[in-house]
Queue: 2 jobs
Job 1
Amino acid sequence: MGRTVRRAAVGLTAGALVLGFPVAVSAQAGEPAEATAETLQASTLRDAAASQGIFVGTAVNDGLLSNSTYSSIASDEFSSVTAENVMKWESIQPSQGNFNFAGGDRLVNFAQANDQQVWGHTLVWHSQLPSWVRDGGMSASQLRQVMNTHITTVMDHYEGDVAYWDVVNEAFNEDGTRRPSVFQTTLGDGYIAEAFRTADAADPNAKLCINDYNIEADNAKSDGMFNLVSSLLNQGVPIDCVGFQSHLILDQVPSTFRSNLERFTNLGLEVVITELDIRVSMPADSAELQRQSQQFASVTSTCLAVEGCVGVTVWGISDRDSWVPDVFPGEGAACLWDDNYQPKPAYTGMLTALGGEPGGGEPEPPTGCSVSYVVNRWNTGSVVEVRITTSTALNGWSVNFTLPAGTITNHWNAQITQSGTTVRAANAAHNANVAAGGSFGFGFQTNSGATYTTPTISLNGANCTTA
Ligand code: XIL
């Protein structure tokens, strides 16, 4: 296992929010400065995932990239894209020696324009395999050469552009024995090790994965996968990761998902949720969509809880694009967006599990602000009037500062919460919008007449100067 395990590459975070504007707080002489941090929350899956150090991906349907609603969601919400079909054997080498990279190249271009990782799917698979390979009646040496040529040519073409490859897909039967694909029956058990060695030679920097479904639970099929990858590692075969497709059924998220992932990461492999969807018997009612939301959140949290789980990819954007209704009659509603590309409860569930919040939770910081903080004291109390001028127009504001002495007993023109010496004032309904160069004010009364210097005050996370 010479390949490294780590969280997703930091390069994916370029679109990410900078979290946690520090709020500097003036300290009284002899008191330590109290460091409070206001955390702005990510409002997209990709920003939220980046803040957790994982990627979040989707399968991309090449034919829908020209639909701007679809492509905006794909670019705004995801940091990784997987070719839903265009990198499969039947698309990329439909007849021997005839390689068609057009669809895959479109995906790579889209990903590069949007600062996304590309997940390559898939090189060696029994399905969507053209008949010239599947039914070609090739000898072992012919098929070996055909398999290796396919891997090498495709990986060479995408070298540097594809971060991860599903080198082998769906090699197992449900009982953990090998699926009798043409590769298995012609080449024997060793075809998997051979495919990985060939892939490693073609692109030594790509991460190389084996991918399958119904291996999320600790079961006979995942035992078969576990035994295989253990033996590959023992033989020094270059393998980096196991993909858990996770085509799940509502209310059937396995309870052993986390411990099962961990037995693989304990081998030093990365694990990835590669094709997540959660299908429902149609029509789906609102209670089912709520449970689906919790279950998307639970799978996401499971990945976050497992060191070495580097990403979660969902299989398609909207319910209308999903493969589910075609393959599982009577089932559907398996994705995060509905038939009209509106986010479903499942979207919010997944975003929240990643630590994000729809709308972001906090408004944008201004480029500059100045504050006047006027205190009228008497022996047992004070009234403070705060007025802030902002250089940037505000659509909602939140002001943070410390109150070194006293408790707030009354306040006006803001919603105020106090926790110890930390105070947060948020706009009232009537003063959320402030023009660039404009100002707003609020005030409060305390039960302490103690004197203190003007605290540092931040507006939407940006520290203001004192007027
Ligand atoms: C599916 C695609 O979503 C469909 O468009 C296509 O018709 C069939 O394949 N496991 C996999 C994916 O590894 O490649 C499959 O994708 C879904 C199951």
Job 2
Amino acid sequence: MPTRTLVKHALDATAPADAILLQGWVRTRRDAKAFSFIEVNDGSCLKGIQVIANATLPNYAAEIARAHTGAAIEVRGQLVPSQGQGQKWEVIAESFTIIGEADATYPLQKKGHTLEFLREIAHLRPRSNLFGAVFRVRSRLAYAVHQFFQERNFFYVHTPIITASDAEGAGDMFRVTTLDLAHPPMTEDGQVDATKDFFGKKTFLTVSGQLEGEIFAHALSNIYTFGPTFRAENSNTSRHAAEFWMIEPEVAFCDLEGDMTLAEEFVKYLIRDARTHCAADLEFFAKFVDKDLLARLDFVLEKPFVRCSYTEAVEILAQSGKTWEHPVAWGANLQAEHERYLTEEHFKCPVTVYNYPRAIKAFYMRQTDGCAPERQTVAAMDLLVPGIGEIIGGSQREERLDQLRAGMALHHLDEKAYWWYLDLRRYGTVPHAGFGLGFERMLMFVTGVANIRDVIPFARTPGTADF
Ligand code: 4AD
Ligand code: MG
């Protein structure tokens, strides 16, 4: 019995084949007098392969009408050069079997659907052209992430998903508890008694693996994490998800400069990988999603990214002659409108903004030496790209114990909760730096898909957690 041939291998064949076995789903069927054309897709690539089922096949009369769009089908036959236009190979069926029926209620009939509708059928949308392409690219780039770091002698560290520490000190965390919410145990002063909870303390879903990553960078030198991350921020935008995947390298003996260079190399590596290994899927996006996609990706590959300090960025924004919804002033955070102006209108290229005001950035970032007190900055960097804004946030970390404690005090953090983090500065501390790349934002950039809900299999956003 022949083993299964994937459609992508059949389409890439270099010679005809006598007995092949195809398994997949019917995309379309056209019936002529003496035969039917069935387009079979198995998800291995964008295209389907054309199968010709002759009316002389023994089960033709009984079965062909069941080969509806969406039905699972198995075909045995010959791979032969195609007579028709647009494809090199087709399959002459010697037998076909309907494995799983789909009737006329199957929602993915040939006509185009809106992305909003497809989100409601997230259990079926991977079978559409667009989402098949998105999730093949997602898989390929996840592989490329590991390749990039493994080639550079980084070790992959699995940081915990349940954590008791707030890595960003921003407080947007999901609580993890097994307490009976209707009747929680209470302390004498009327608070919920977290010591009676599963872990004996308050716990949360992680917002970042960075702090644990730093532990491992102080042992293995170069590490990265790649895992799910959770933020309970109530931002209903096309770029925010409550559950997303983040890649976080952490490098010992590295400063902000080295960090920015690594980030740039990483982003370019992923783009190049997709250009090489996902060519057909990217062409599909360029045709149906974003016609400038390929030119933009190639442009980004060629150009060195601009580096611009926060202070310079504020000057550029102030002198732009634009009216901003969020006023521009030294000390205020850059908003999406500012980020997009810098990359899309001013520099017209990806921009790394660095050295941000200390007060608006996380407690662990390294204080820049020699600043005027009212203009104290930290060695932070954000990589901004056209169309999306921030895809990477990173920094050189504060490796000096006293300065780190001062940063924690500034952000009103309890040192006791971070005792182990402070220990890293007591025992063999070194300059070190790292960053986080939002995997979905990278996928949006590479595919041109405009909404984060459409690059993650099952989106978790405020008010939605279906499937
Ligand atoms: O800038 P952020 O918050 O940085 C950190 O978490 C650091 N601990 C990273 C580090 O230095 N190791 O997040 C990093 C990136 C952002 O640039 C963005 O791409 C993505 O994570 N991100 C989100 N993606 C989707 N939905 C959200 N709600 C996101 N929040 C951040
Ligand atoms: Mg950030």
